[in-house]
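Lecture 7 notes. Example A: sequence first, then its structure tokens.
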Amino acid sequence: MAHLLSESERSFIERLQYGAKGFEFKNWANTFHCKPLYYLAPETECEIIELVRIAARHGLTLKPVGSGHSPSDLACTDSIMLNMDKMNRILAHDPYACTLTVEAGVRLHQLNSMLEQRGMALSSLGSISDQSIAGAIATATHGTGMAFGDMSSTITHLVIIDGTGRRRECSATVDPDLFDAARCSIGALGIITQVTIQCEPAFKLHAVQTPDTLDHVLNTLSDVAFSAEHVRFWWFPYTDNVAVWRANRTTQPIQPRAKSLWRDRLVGYHYYQLRLLKSRLVPDDLPSINQEQFSSRFNRRIESIDDSYKVFNFDCLFSHHVNEWAVPWEKAADVIRQLRAWINAEERKPDGVRVHFPVQARFVKESNVWLSPTYGQTVCYIAVIMYRPYHRAVPYKKYWRVYEDIMRTQGGRPHWAKAHKMYYYDLKKAYPKFDDFIKLRGECDPNGIFVNDYIRRHILPPNEPILTANSGSGSRSLTCEKPRL
């Protein structure tokens, strides 16, 4: 393709080249990868607009990438990949409205520091802070709390460059349809360059984690979900053991969690990973491993008081496959009971499926963001995980298939960052505004500049032709790895 670029285009792209040529993108878990033709790092909106125009002229695909934490091929392309790390400036701060406007490449850990310096904080935060703010809202990244929405719902204004190179500003009062679509757009509408985030005054959280039983939690789920401002729990398959985490705002002095090198690192990380490696050969060890981990690390009261973002985040250990869907929160107990029944039935089979801990549950308030799993409903996100000890393969496909079947029959919607098996007609049924989103996508990206395998597989109507801006040329097929489901 390089020989088709004009001299000025080639010079422009070479100036934005990031890292060594031949770069191969790998996501955090090393489960998906691709080799983009160009790996570029723009610093300004004008550069992004010019890249959109070059892509349109030559029938190229353009995909931004943040931390690469998504366990899917959402960011993959064999064309132009944009590293957004250089777009990390603070643009505006309104202390009275408690908002901060930043460029889209800002990582959440950078954002946490920016907010702390200004006496503000995010109202809710997920398990990690490695993602870029644009990547977090593109997939409706979430924390937990029945009164708290996902990160997409905290955006009050954004700027997006669409597939025609047009810079478009939107909010609840300016182009509201684009705003409600773009706040969770999985990269299908354009490249978000800046966002304004609704925050709150900085606060501390008092977190208490206690052991419980699964039957008690499920039988009193409403009480549990509303028992604190932020609640999540982990179930340990093959047992009735649950760890329930609750956190509330507090003005008490900081008392960080006491960490144990033995319990947290040696037993909870290195020894656990070694045990999982052995279980690849002896999967019947997994029930005892799950019980062992609960007994040694979770079967006690754990308490801490710290700055909010330090309490929200926790160690996700090592590489893993993960699947996560949201269901109406009232259906969460039935979903987990069905999953438990299947896991227990498999345990009784000599060659049945064996699974890792945990099964995690978190609660998120409804929103009006068109493609957020929280659209029109308060949900319980239920996640399943299979670790990859030392990056070794583990069997997970049957587990995923059964899990997704259960979630789908209970009105579930998948987390957009995860690899999943929901397609056009499924999503059309699951999301009331899906048709509106598809129409808007056609207007924002008429030439398919932002269409990669993920978008084509899940979002586009079957057999819809994708035309490139270069008249007479066909659509560019992508060669990034197919999702390993």
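Example B, a different protein, same format:
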Amino acid sequence: MDITPYVDSLDAYLFYVNRAFCSPLAMFVQIQGCIICLLLAVGWSVAAYIRIKEIWEMQKSMQGGNSFAFLCHDIHNLEHSKQEDLPGVTVVLPLKGFVEHNIHNWKTQITSLYGGPLEFLFIVDSTEDPAYHALSKLLIDIEDDVDACIIIAGPSTTCSQKIHNQLVGVKRMSEASKYVLFLDDDIRLHPGSIGALIAEMEKNPEIFIQTGYPLDLPSRSLGSYCIYAYHMPCSMGFATGGKTFFLWGGCMMMHADDFRNDKHGIVSRLEDGGYSDDMTLAAIAGAHKRLITSPPFSVFPHPLASDLTFPRYWNYLRKQTFVLESYTTFENWIRNRALFCTHCYLSWGYVAPYIMAMVHVVAAIRLWLNEYFLEEHIFNPNGLILAGCLAICTAIELFTMWNMTRIEAELCNMLSPESPALSLKSYNWCLVFVAMLVDNFFYPICALYSHLSQSVNWSGIRYRLKKGKIVKIERTKTGSKLSDLAAKHLYVKKIEDKAKPSIKAAFSKSFRWRLPKKHQM
């Protein structure tokens, strides 16, 4: 069978598409793609400069004889007379499920070198959560003076489980606490992070919220690299070294009295159908012209699960796009719609030029492989020129992305000198490029699906929204028992009373920290 006519037909169509992709509109799309790559490169270069200035400050302090520069740039601030006057802080950690990295993460969080009064409140919804049992064993095994306890918050009824756990935590925090720090359980805290955040709050009382951002440590799976690709462009908004309009719920330090007095209605707004803690608080800060800052040292290692599959990445992306469907005011709704449209446009504006470039390259290869063509097989060389420009812009973009990651890893190594050093040797940059295309291709699809469905499954709980607020919460233990990012085990079988942590046995340890107790709120 002679396949030549079919090949000629495909060639004809290929060169037709090549010429179509050289039209003025198509050329605009491809040039726009180059501009997007260069804008990403500029953003990462500026963000890297902000981070590296912090490294230079630490190196300068170390050269001046300060061996504790990872705690404080001025060693005189570590004197006992100043440490004893430090304000109290409560760290609230809402937990859900248990993951391979949790134990290590919790250890970095509770072994802070902050010199002032410090308490840790770990909040779970029930004793059936695997995090409860794993954390109970950890606290019993630790013999240092750690003021920590586990609080059973019960199921949420009017807001997301995370917000419910956070609000239960602030209700139980010590009256002596001046600040409250909300942390996610999937990040690693540096020894001096809490002290550095409080120093910034003390320096500028006008700060409403201090935040930070994670440095993803992807595993070998495509899903983990897609999450890394999603976070990296967003990291520019947090590497400002000061004022920012963005907020990350994984690290938020606020004034404790703001919650005690329900300032700006933060408690009532979170309780009343709140789905996203950071988006709700960012909207309140914007509405009342309050200051959000992201200091340059506030970057935290974020290890991703070794078996993070693509379906779990998709569920994570669903949660990220779903936050744009929640809002508290009309202005907040307008801002979310603007973010929705801008992100979707830029995502496909990033991907489309690569599809066009691939057509130009394949057409050029066919032109080179064939000895002759019919007259209608006209190849437009402008497409190949645009593809070359896109390749150059992509190389620049990936280089600045690598440099930004390298500098953040170096900063994390300096902030945690006794932890295993982070390295970029395990990063697969070909997979990073593929993940950038995959993530930006699926984001608009996922965002549209979230907009149409108005519901999402978050760690085994389905939330349904109406007019930006949660109106229905559905819980089920059927189906997947793993969450998205970290492949968390969400449920365990109910155990007998004799297997539960014994308070009597725990008291015999005579530790100074408060033992795991059950509190019904």
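Note on Example B: The first helix runs from residue 4 to 20. The chain is about 50% helix and 15% strand.
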